[in-house]
Write a structure and sequence with these properties.
- This protein is α+β, with helices and mostly antiparallel strands.
- It has 4 domains: 131 residues; 95 residues, Beta-Lactamase, CATH 3.30.450; 70 residues; 140 residues, Heat Shock Protein 90 (2-Layer Sandwich).
- It is built from 20 helices and 14 strands.
- Strand 13 and strand 14 form a beta hairpin.
- It is flat, with a radius of gyration of 39 Å.
- The two termini are 72 Å apart.
């Protein structure tokens, strides 16, 4: 067999009913269950998608029965992992009969869900390597271990040994609450009004030893199970309280300011109620650390002088941790003028920075890095086919490859825009500095857009200043910013619309004021709009007009300007390049001078 087209043959047919769906489900399992072989990854991905679609037609119980059937070979780790994330009944059936090699189990088990790992513990045919991995991960059987065998009961002085030893098992004896019942282990002692001991009970009370024996056996099983779990109940699969990790997941609120008072020794003895438990007892009269923070307050305290804008670094709870600025004044008694402390206020030296946005941007950039790899691979393979690098290719396949390459390029462009927005909003990217005339750039771009809007009987009614509008941006940065705003507006412009636009100079600011098209004007937040230019040669990007405008706003912020909505207008303001901001000439820059 030169070409294995069995998977393609199965996928070519559509399941018309439940019976056909079951048949095709079995066929796909039989083909995918073999060990991974070279083949078309897209075809395998389509097979998994077909399994998901067929699962909607087949009840869970019947799917579990099909998966657990021994009539097909189950040697594919990818399929094992896929079934491990399915319904527990299906995952249990799959993991009970999967036949993998030892190194495959070792690599797969840590990637399985915790619930799926528990199913593997019930198998006694796993390789030693798989068992070691399960032990390292703390996966153990959830059933209580059987109690250790007990020796046969013996009689002591004509009484059952069990009854004679009830005194040692007092917490396990079921009896009424009575202070005299403590003498149950001493039948020879009689207390007036006390109930008879179980050893002296009539024959109908002989069920008590049986009940205590059952409770004792259960307690022994529980104790044996607890010891087998180890000293650390939090390891492995041990359950935790529903709110056990709440302190770590909920963000802690930092204080920005609080009032305080000290005693005559400089120790804080009063503070606002929500802050008092964290700061009362701190001695402000002492030098704090090697960086001399707080020395000014200590010196003022010795001289009984007011303090203003004194830096102090507090250590302690997360809410007060950090650098503070203190303003305080000494207090004196009215009668004899004795000093009895300071009263003042703490305020943050620098407002606490919330790095949640930065962490989110980092996660987004890591995700984009992971996504670029497969998209780059698809684009590369498509270009190889389209350019016939390895030999002649039918024109139909070349057309499909060209379409895939174009889609991949658009996806990569979208990734670049997402990455640029994340870096701009977190301050990790600065626009390239330079000098450019934004008025000339806008004039050129509007001329290009007019030719596209003409067939739609739409246009820009633009009034642009005749004066130059220099910006401290490189020309390519200014062109991207201008095109992102103007092309997004043009792409959302409907047939027959006229967009009023003006570019003026207001002091040291450049102001571009453009009327919003009707589509954007109807949205409450233009920066979150998902309007796309359908069927137009102008594209606002794969994420829509709102994302493009948000990216333009981030670029304007990085350039020291602003992009905002003013009723039915979009206003872009940017700082002009002044004589003081002009870049040095090459002759004034030593590293650029020639000779």
């Amino acid at each position: 067999m030169h070409f294995d087209d069995r998977l393609a043959t199965v996928l070519r047919h559509r399941a018309a009913g439940v019976r056909a769906a079951k048949t095709q489900f079995r066929q796909l399992l039989d083909l995918l269950g073999e060990r991974p072989q070279a083949g078309d990854p897209a075809l395998k991905a389509a097979a998994y998608l077909r399994l998901i679609a067929l699962a909607e037609l087949i009840p869970i119980g019947e799917r579990a029965a099909i998966v657990g059937d021994s009539g097909w070979r189950f040697r594919n780790p990818e399929l094992v992992r896929w079934f491990g994330e399915a319904h527990p009944a299906i995952a249990g059936s799959a993991l009970s009969r999967a036949q993998l090699m030892s190194e495959e189990w070792v690599e797969l088990i840590p990637r399985l869900p915790i619930r799926a790992r528990g199913f593997l513990r019930h198998r006694n045919d796993l390789p030693d390597g798989a068992v070691r991995v399960l032990d390292q991960l703390g996966v153990s059987d959830r059933a209580l271990p059987l109690p250790e065998p007990q020796p046969a009961p013996e009689t002591i002085a004509g009484e059952p040994a069990e009854a004679a030893s009830l005194g040692n098992l007092e917490p396990l004896v079921l009896r009424e609450t009575d202070e005299n019942s403590r003498d149950v282990a001493k039948p020879e002692t009689s207390v007036p009004g006390a109930k008879p001991a179980p050893v002296a009970a009539p024959p109908q009370a002989s069920e008590a030893p049986d009940k205590s024996d059952g409770i004792r056996a259960l307690v022994e099983r529980i104790e044996s199970f607890r010891k087998s779990r180890g000293p650390d109940p939090q390891g492995g699969d041990a359950p935790t309280l529903p709110l056990a990790g709440l302190d770590e997941t909920m963000p802690r609120k930092q204080l920005d300011a609080f009032s305080f008072g000290t005693n005559s020794e400089g120790r804080i003895d009063w503070a606002e109620p929500e802050t008092a438990p964290m700061v009362i007892g701190i001695d402000l009269s002492q030098r704090f650390d090697a960086d001399k923070a707080g020395d000014d307050f200590a010196a003022a305290f010795v001289n009984r002088q007011p303090v203003r804008d004194v830096a102090i670094a507090l250590r302690g709870a997360d809410a007060i941790e950090g650098d503070w600025i203190v303003d305080a004044a000494p207090r004196f008694t009215r009668g004899d003028g004795r000093f009895y402390g300071y009263v003042g206020r703490f305020r943050r030296a620098v407002a606490p920075v919330d790095d949640r946005a930065r962490r989110g941007a980092d996660r987004l950039r890591q995700l984009l890095h992971e996504l670029r790899t497969p998209v780059n691979a698809m684009q590369g393979y498509a270009e190889v086919i389209q350019q016939q690098v390895f030999g002649p290719t039918p024109h139909e396949y070349r057309a499909l490859a060209a379409s895939i390459a174009g889609d991949s390029a658009r996806i990569l462009a979208g990734f670049d825009e997402l990455d640029r927005l994340a870096r701009l909003e977190t301050g990790d990217l600065d626009l390239e500095a330079g000098e450019s005339d934004f008025a000339a750039i806008a004039r050129t771009q509007l001329g290009q857009l007019q030719t596209v809007l003409g067939p739609r009987v739409a246009r820009f009614d633009a009034e642009l200043t005749d004066k130059p509008a220099p910006l401290a941006l490189a020309r390519n940065e200014a062109e991207m910013l201008g095109w992102r705003v103007l092309a997004t507006l043009a792409g959302a412009t409907g047939a027959g619309e006229n967009i009023v636009l003006s570019l003026t100079l207001d002091g040291d600011q450049l102001v571009l004021r453009a009327q919003l098209p009707a589509k954007l004007a109807r949205t409450d937040n233009v920066f979150a709009s998902e309007i796309r230019a359908g069927g137009s040669t102008l594209s606002s990007g794969i994420f829509g007009a709102g994302f493009s405008l948000r990216l333009a706003r981030a670029e304007a912020h990085a350039a020291g300007g602003e992009l905002a909505r003013d009723e039915d207008f979009l206003v872009l303001s940017l700082p002009l390049l002044t004589a003081n901001d002009a870049l040095p000439s090459p002759a004034d820059a030593p590293d650029r001078a020639a000779g």
